[in-house]
Write a structure and sequence with these properties.
The chain is an alpha/beta fold. The chain is built from 10 helices and 11 strands. The protein has 3 domains: 11-96, Arc Repressor Mutant, subunit A; 102-168 and 272-303, D-Maltodextrin-Binding Protein, domain 2 (3-Layer(aba) Sandwich); 170-268, 3-Layer(aba) Sandwich (D-Maltodextrin-Binding Protein, domain 2), CATH 3.40.190. Helix content is 36%, strand content 19%.
């Protein structure tokens, strides 16, 4: 395949833009007015374009010019070309203003995803083409993302020592089993009994996990990468697991799962926080996304960051 950079282009973006204007405005006269150019210059540009391409793009019938079949195909492709060029120039302008080409977000898996998705929906029309890298994280892995400044924005359930964050929402974690599990027949379950059972756990995303965090007292463990896998296993009667209550609400309602009747510690609560690991380097794109997340929780944007990139003191 020939390298496209080794061959000189036959036509210019301006010629394609003129062709589009002639078609969109229904002729050379109105297109000339819209582009603030003379009608003869537009006619010359389109004639030259057809000659350069070696393809008839327009055909004249009476006093009007109509697209040929080939012209229709070329016009559609040219719109993609000019739109891409416009977006490229817009990206350059955004970068000059400090707008990030990519925003990295780490989100602890216990955080309700429907809230995150609504914040994303609100942000995308304002994103100016910035790519979003959304990564799930678990416990120590989330803390690492903050400490090692691996992300622009982090939603964490565990604030590392020395860091502050904006509280978002309390997440209630409940121990669950299947109605098929032998423990489901007991009226109460002692923690010592639970320690003898198989626990399904979610793999910590850190390279060096901190096993002092969370409830990991069972000797028998089955480790999976996400809550969806854990729900599938536990609903089949394989072990027990701690789940965010919002995540298993439908399974509990449909009696595919049931909460363990523990004598003590029937649930755990974790407050999720919004953290910007490096406040001195937050860009306008990340700042805008932060404000969308705060709005999702009915928090004022100036409770954390303003929309002009600077962190509030």
């Amino acid at each position: 395949m020939q390298d496209p950079t080794s061959k000189r282009l036959k036509a210019t973006l301006e010629q394609w833009r003129i062709l589009q204007a002639v078609v969109d405005h229904g002729g050379y006269s109105k297109a000339a007015e819209a582009l603030n150019k003379s009608q003869s210059s537009l006619n010359h540009a389109v004639t030259k374009l057809q000659h350069q391409m070696g393809v008839a793009l327009l055909e004249v019938k009476g006093r009007k010019a109509y697209l040929t079949n080939a012209g229709e195909v070329m016009l559609r492709r040219s719109r993609l070309l000019t739109q891409s060029a416009f977006e490229l120039e817009q990206l350059a302008d955004n970068l000059c203003q400090g707008w990030e080409p990519e925003i990295t977000l780490y989100a602890e898996i216990i955080y309700p995803r429907e809230r995150l998705y609504r914040a994303l929906q609100a942000f995308l029309p304002q994103s100016r083409g910035s790519r979003i890298k959304l990564l799930d994280s678990v416990i120590t892995g989330t803390s690492d993302a903050i400490i090692k400044k691996q992300a622009d924005i982090v939603i964490t359930g565990q604030l590392p020592k020395g860091y502050l964050g904006q509280p978002l929402i309390n997440v209630h974690l409940v121990p669950c089993i299947s109605p098929l599990h032998p423990l489901s027949q007991q009226s109460t379950v002692d923690v010592k009994e639970l320690m003898q059972e198989l626990q399904v756990v979610i793999k910590d995303t850190a390279i060096t996990p901190n096993e002092s965090l969370g409830w990991l007292k069972s000797e028998q463990r089955l480790t999976v990468s996400n809550f969806h896998e854990a729900v599938s296993l536990v609903s089949q009667g394989i072990g027990f697991a701690w789940f965010p209550k919002h995540f298993v609400a439908s399974q509990l309602k449909q009696k595919q799962l049931q909460m363990l009747p523990l004598k003590q510690g029937k649930s755990r609560t974790s407050m999720t926080h919004l953290v910007v690991p490096d406040e001195t380097r937050i860009g306008p794109g990340a700042s805008t996304f932060v404000n969308c997340l705060l709005a999702e929780h009915n928090l004022e944007s100036d409770a954390f960051y303003d929309s002009n990139k600077e962190p509030i003191a």
